[in-house]
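ok here's the first one, seq then struct tokens
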Amino acid sequence: MKKIAAIDMGTNSFLCLIAEVSGSKLKVIEDHVKVVRLGEKVNQNKFFLPQALARAQDCLKEFKKIIERNKVDKVIATATSAARDAKNGNELKRICDELSIPLFIIEGEKEAQLSFKGAVSNIENFENKKILVVDVGGGSTEFIFSEPGKKLKAISFDVGCVRLTEMFLSKDPIDERELFELRKYAQRAISNYGHINPDVIIAVAGTPTTLACVEQKIDFNESKVEGFKLTQNKLFNLLQNLSALSLDERKNIIGLEPLRADVIIAGIVLLQLALELAAKDEMVVSTRGLRYGVALNHASF
């Protein structure tokens, strides 16, 4: 049994999981999430902005205190899409080095595989089911399809909710024409994934967990979010209702964190497209994801 701290430094959010791990078993001690927006404007200029790095540093200092309090055996921090794109990614590494947090910048396919491992970590006999895991990030979105007896089909697409928002959505409230162009661009990107026929779709990361809260009109509550079902009809209504509001109005919606209010629209579209690709009507929300996969796979880091 080892106590692991797994930090997921995403384009939009940073997450810190403290867990006891033994083989394929994982027991959660603490789990924290903070919207950092590390990838602010990275799509345009390929650099981390000074204010984004400052937010990252503040968040990691908080996580460091949590890690020290828990006296963990191993710390693993992973950075993904934004860190792969930014020319000054060494600045992020410098911050981690100063805090003695080992940083691994992982490629999209590795990110997808670890996200899948985390997402299915509490599903019995997942090897016998056809499962699609959809991980909507800020800079990229991963599709991971598992079919009994076949190799995992894991692909990362550069169509995350922050990236798409910065590329297409400039009006407040949302402009229908811009939203149409965003959808068309994202659909073209993920259409390369090809035909799949999953028995179940699992949606991980901040977009689906936030929508589960908004739909239930609650602040985050893991017991009410884990396993919540998002249908095409629910996603359609959420998109219609939220896109009609101004940004300030969206910031006051129960369950929708203000720093996620601008990018949630693009996130909904990506989930809709995932259901369309798989020809399914619903997906199951999971609070698990990359950090769980990293913790379970700690020996490989």
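and now the second one, same deal
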Amino acid sequence: MNLEDKGPDGFAPSAKSLGEENLDRLEQGLQQIARAHGRMRDLLDAVLLISRELDLNLVLHKIIETARQLVDARYAALGVLGPDGEFTDLITSGFGADQTARLGDTLPHGTGLLGALVRDPQPLRVQDLAHHPQAVGFPEGHPPMSTLLGVPIRVRSTIYGNLYLADKAGGGAFTDDDEAVVTALASAAGVAIENARLYEQLRRATEEFQRRLLPDIPHLDGLELHAHYQPSTEAPRIGGDWYDFIRLPDRVPCLMLGDVMGHGTPAATVMSQISNMLRVIAFDEQEPPSRILHRLDTVLHELHGGPMATVIIARLEPEGTGRRLQWASAGHLPPLLVTPGHEARYLHADTGLPLGVDPDVPRADHEEHLPAGSTVLLHTDGLVEHRGESLDVGMDEAAGIAATYASKPLPALVDALVKARAGTFEDDVALLAARITPSTNQSG
């Protein structure tokens, strides 16, 4: 053994002490690997989380929330920039977010540190905000902060906004690893934001196309009408739901509503074919509704091979001070009747088979007297569908809402039914409502 192999006291270190040192170093290395692996797993989970969202507002909130959790920051904010580089929105999360929200419409002016990131969109780390030469302080009521990590978010080649994180929960400054993780998240966030914006553009275009296929609702003496179309929120897709209204040659109002099975352009094409044919056939046949459906089913079989769809047709003939509802159904949900006494019930009757099954099967007509002030609603099943629940549960909920709004204006009643779904629709919804009002001419 050489002298270099001996310790400071002249004696060689024992094999046990060498093993303990190696074990300590090995344990420290394994802990670093585990922390790095855990952080990478958290980053991947965060990327998947924000990528699943298509609603832009939810995407932005998830970005700041996940960023704050990844680096254990007490506060996070996302400043959205306009075309001129000015802040157009500021979304916050964590400690002090409520205080920031109370500042109202006050947005950063971009003259201090936040503006530095706007002018030079590169990652920014500050260990002492109070003494940084570019700091201009915080507005009154803003929560106090001492450290900052800022990262730009790019959507393609444009700076969409900046992600700001302040004050690690355990104290200390933000690290190189923190910056790397947040920068990686910001890159994925840019893709998620672009996807959400493209989704919104497609959704609006799809909804506008669908609405252009639907008719305007007229104003009639003795009858108030209101219609609503709501596209599915599951995906921006064209659907096969529609409503229609015509006055027949005998001057009787006729409500028509249906749902073509399937989605996409094929369903919208079939929907257009059925609605146009139905108008002509109803105008020619006039009554009874069952006969109109029979002819429609026969023509569709002969010309288009019998596409599958549910349809309901209802005449509203004058009867005393009210109306007589006469309807027939091809596999569709029954009408919902709401009376002035705050009672609501579905008019359950034989719904028959959908169109496209067997055009030779007889269809039944049904009748119900509608007193003045009552409302009848026709709707597609998207209004009452809830994943994991039967239609009966959804129909009961709709009837309860309709009863509560029985004396409210007709648009308020319809809005209440739609808003009860909290903005989530697994399928398209078409809804057509008619309220019996005092008439100066009871001929229709």
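notes on #2: The chain has nine helices and 15 strands. Residues 236 and 402 are 28 Å apart (CA to CA).
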